[in-house]
Write a structure and sequence with these properties.
The complex is a heterodimer of chains A (about 270) and B (about 160). Chain A has about 270 residues and is an alpha+beta fold. Chain A has helices at about 15-20, 35-40, 85-95, 100-105, 110-115, 120-130, 145-150, 225-230, 240-250, 255-274; strands spanning about 5-10, 25-30, 50, 60-65, 65-70, 130-135, 140-145, 150, 155, 165-170, 175-185, 195-200, 205-215, 220. A five-stranded mixed sheet of chain B has the order 2-1-5-3-4, covered by helices on one side. Classes of the chains: A alpha+beta (about 270), B alpha+beta (about 160). At the A-B interface, α2 and α4 of A face β4 and α4 of B.
Chain lengths: ~270, ~160
């Protein structure tokens, strides 16, 4: 199929962009690797497509006291750099799992957060890092915690006139262990399950763990009970304990649950080994 | 809407409806049918072209977004009466195509990647990850890998301008 007719706007400032979004039936086009697909399927029939690719400043990655701020046009591939900072390291570890090179060169981090596909890696990352989604409309701006953002399969707290302007990934203490593990059928497949692990280790003990999973439900999930159970466990035992704790809570009689238990273990293995 | 862009070295000014996809404008308006449409929804990669040097699914881009860009298609890789591009020649010599439908996409995917970074072929896992961007339903991947290695060799030895 081909997209149904729509009007097209290519604003060059955020103010123009949110004005264009204020009209009924407008949608944001950033990387377009999901939106154009939905236009082609006619799952979406917007009256107007607001292409933000020419908006100045949205491609920036900034760091301030609170953490790393990723603008609406930061492409997946631009997060591959890594570095000593644990947030950067986690992002770089995840990038190779997001789609494949042409999509990674075009699709955006914020677009993934806005689309909210249940299997999307970045959504689990955002949840694990307690990210803050910063949205703007002609009426003003607001920040939404990742835990309040994801409402279901491709449903978020975003209102139709809001642009996801940037996402804040709060700073992690230096030396925080981070790890990621995913199971998928092929390189180019969506994740069946993916798990993000963030662990604070002191004196050989895991003080605090955050675990978030994609692919287990209609939205990313924090495995809070498992996180609590793992506090204070020794570094050498934490991955094994994670497998058991996840299995106790999710069971092992479904493929997804069995994957989650194993992947939680692998994510923590990678985190504490690094 | 008026779109001005350069395709395979030729400047164009076209009046296109915003809903039209880049691949359809390339094929139907400019007659560049060398770029094929396989799945039409971003999975197979046969419609891959280079937009400002970066491989892009032309079925997942609106033509109006190409305004001001430089697009390269498989038809612009080699001059009409000149030698084949190293990737094209490597596909020919390594039998890297069977039915040939996916070939324009694979050739552009590899041309985009290898012109920038021919060393990628040294890492077999990275080459697999790159090639998994596109689908060949004849499953001719062994030939395509061989072609990638040969083309990378040629591009590496080529003096840089």
């Amino acid at each position: 199929m081909k997209p149904a007719p729509f009007a097209y706007a290519a604003p060059t400032t955020v103010a123009e962009a949110v004005d264009a979004l204020a009209e009924d039936g407008a949608v944001v086009l950033a990387g377009g690797q999901s939106l154009v697909l939905e236009l082609v399927y006619r799952d979406q029939r917007p009256r107007r497509v607001v292409d933000v690719n020419r908006v100045a400043g949205l491609a920036d990655q900034r760091e301030d006291d609170a953490g790393l701020l990723l603008g609406a046009l930061v492409r997946h591939a631009e997060l591959a750099g890594g570095g000593a900072d644990p947030v950067r390291r986690l992002l770089a570890e995840v990038v190779p799992y997001v789609a494949h090179p042409p999509i990674r060169a075009r699709g955006t981090f914020c677009g993934s957060i806005a689309w909210a596909h249940p299997a999307a890696e970045w959504n689990a990352v955002a949840l694990a890092l307690d990210a803050e989604v910063r949205v703007r409309s002609a009426a003003g701006h607001r920040a939404v915690a990742a835990s309040d953002w994801f409402l279901g399969d491709r449903r978020t707290a975003r209102r139709p006139d809001e642009l996801v302007e940037e996402v804040l990934l709060p700073r992690l203490a230096s030396g925080t262990a981070v790890g990621f593990a995913e199971h998928r059928r092929t390189h180019a497949s969506f994740a069946e399950v993916a798990v993000v692990a963030v662990a604070l280790v002191r004196d050989g003990l895991v003080q605090h763990v955050r675990l978030a999973a994609a692919g287990l439900a209609d939205r990313p999930l924090r495995l809070s009970e498992v996180e609590e159970a793992l506090a204070g466990v020794g570094v050498a035992e934490v991955a094994g304990r994670a497998r058991v704790e996840v299995a106790i809570r999710l069971g092992v009689d479904t493929h997804q649950a069995a994957l989650a238990a194993e992947l939680a273990g692998r994510a923590l293995d990678r985190a504490v080994a690094a | 809407m008026i779109v001005r862009f350069r395709v395979d070295g030729v400047d164009h000014e076209l009046d296109v409806e915003p809903r039209r996809l880049l691949v359809d404008v390339l094929r139907d308006d400019l007659g560049l049918t060398g770029t094929t449409v396989g799945c039409g929804h971003g999975v197979c990669g046969s419609c891959t072209v280079l937009v400002d040097g970066v491989a892009r699914r032309s079925c997942l881009a609106l033509a109006v977004q190409a305004d001001g860009t430089e697009v390269r298609t498989v038809q612009g890789l080699a001059p009409a009466d000149g030698p084949l591009h190293p990737v094209q020649r490597a596909f020919h010599e390594n039998h890297a195509l069977q039915c040939g439908f996916c070939t324009p996409g694979f050739v552009m995917l590899l041309a985009g990647a290898l012109e920038k970074e021919p060393e990628i072929v040294e890492d077999e896992e990275a080459l697999t990850a790159l090639l998994s961007s596109n689908l060949c339903r004849c499953t001719g991947y062994v030939g395509i890998r061989a072609a990638a290695h040969q083309a990378a060799q040629v591009l590496r030895e080529r003096p840089t301008a």
